[in-house]
Amino acid sequence: MESMTFVLFGSTGDLAKRKIFPALYNLYAEQKMPQKISIIAVGRKEMSDSDLQAYVKRSLQTFSRSIIDDETSLADFLNAFRYSQFDATKMEDYQSLRDLVEQREKELHIPENRMFYLSVGPEFFDLIALNIKESGLGSTKGWKRLIIEKPFGHDLESARLLNANLTKAFEEEEIYRIDHYLGKPMVQNLEALEFANPVLQTLWNNQHIANVQITASETVGVEERAGYYDKSGALRDMFQNHMLQMLMMTAMRKPNRISATDIRNEKRKVMESLRPLTKEEVGLHIIRGQYTSGKMGGEPVKSYLEEPGINPTSMNDTFIAAELWIDNSFWSGVPFYIRTGKRMKEKSTRIVIEFKDSSQDLYKDQHEQVAPNLLIIEINPNENVTLQLNSKHPMTGEVEPIKVNFTSNNKDVPEAYERLIYDAFRGDSTFFAHWNEVELAWEWVQPIIDAFSEGSVPLAHYESGSYGPKEADQLLQNTGFKWWLDE
Ligand code: BG6
């Protein structure tokens, strides 16, 4: 791996403390870091280099998955860090940052490979990217890369505008858009499950699959993010990005090669084949919900409208369920159901694939007992792959479902940020969101945004601690299906 400079904007923020510093440390501990690295932490606060190093150390002690017992190697790691105080609007601050970057490059004898990680509010993305260019920070003799994380815009138009600005300073190949769901081991594993198993690959189409269900339910409410969430809702916060990324990873066809370009091409094709919704059709295929008060783990919790900072007349969605159709020869006729919501009964991200039932005639008399074959891929918090088959009970002789299960017991697996930063170090963009995917996802979602803002889709309510509004169950009943595992 090539030596480089890693410039972290927003280094005193929450994400840096909880995720980025621990990820860097764990990569260092596992020798997955460039041999020589200069890490420049940039932030608004006044801080010396040693203040910063102490701050990073505290964050590792609190949030890192691995235990720091070797003081020498920890000191070695911390020694790579320098601090630069910075105001994103002041050009002179970019110049002093550039001076520091260059000075460290000379001290460490490293090439001008520069990675800029913007862990800042999205309103600063284009400003900082453009000023990186303007100040000469981005004019390197080596490579340069930009890492940003959602939200990439608030709707189709703002996303396009943001991208137009970013691409004035960075080429598309230089932009690494984090969708942390793509860093989850089980999401990354979807590709291997499907393409390394001829058995599954043969079945992965509309001849054998009846429907696909993708759920990301959360138990938390809006937490301390009322200002952001009340404007965003589940549609923008989860659906447009994480949920559609999981859909792409599930429905993509076999790529020519396992490479970033080929996989992204296949993902793009999924989005291009997604049947568009008109504003008028939104109400037929999309359910929007909002949580009311209820009980979570036996404790009463407030309704969304009573949460601090939420507009008490808000019509914001905290739950979305959708029925989607992919109009290509592999998937036509197979509904994909997606749902996500806050304050639901359990924290679970999973994909359930229901296979078609061809045993109906043979087991007519006992058909009550013959359950469909299911492939259940649990992504979070448990990582499991389960295949539900049917088998005869040895005592009663009745056909009943059995489960063949693989559980990943390895608790010390790298976290999403670790995997993604490692990939970015190596220049592997497979598990980052390409602009094509982001744009196509916004295009698909835009009529839903429009219909919601016109108020033409009723807001369904669901009790906190439930599986969402009953309307989401009805969505599946139209095709004769039900959500699996809601029990
Ligand atoms: C984030 C959303 O992107 O993902 C949050 O902004 C959500 O609202 C979170 O809680 C869920 O991530 P995970 O990894 O806990 O499923």
From TrEMBL:
Its EC number is 1.1.1.49. This is Glucose-6-phosphate 1-dehydrogenase. The lineage of its organism: Bacteria, Bacillati, Bacillota, Bacilli, Bacillales. GO terms for biological process: glucose metabolic process; pentose-phosphate shunt, oxidative branch. Pathway: Carbohydrate degradation; pentose phosphate pathway; D-ribulose 5-phosphate from D-glucose 6-phosphate (oxidative stage): step 1/3. Substrate binds at H180, K184, E218, D237, K342, K347. The gene is zwf. It catalyses: D-glucose 6-phosphate + NADP(+) = 6-phospho-D-glucono-1,5-lactone + NADPH + H(+). Keywords: Carbohydrate metabolism, Glucose metabolism, NADP, Oxidoreductase. NADP(+) binds at G10, S11, T12, G13, D14, L15, A16, K17, R44, K150. Belongs to the glucose-6-phosphate dehydrogenase family. Residues 7-189 form the Glucose-6-phosphate dehydrogenase NAD-binding domain.
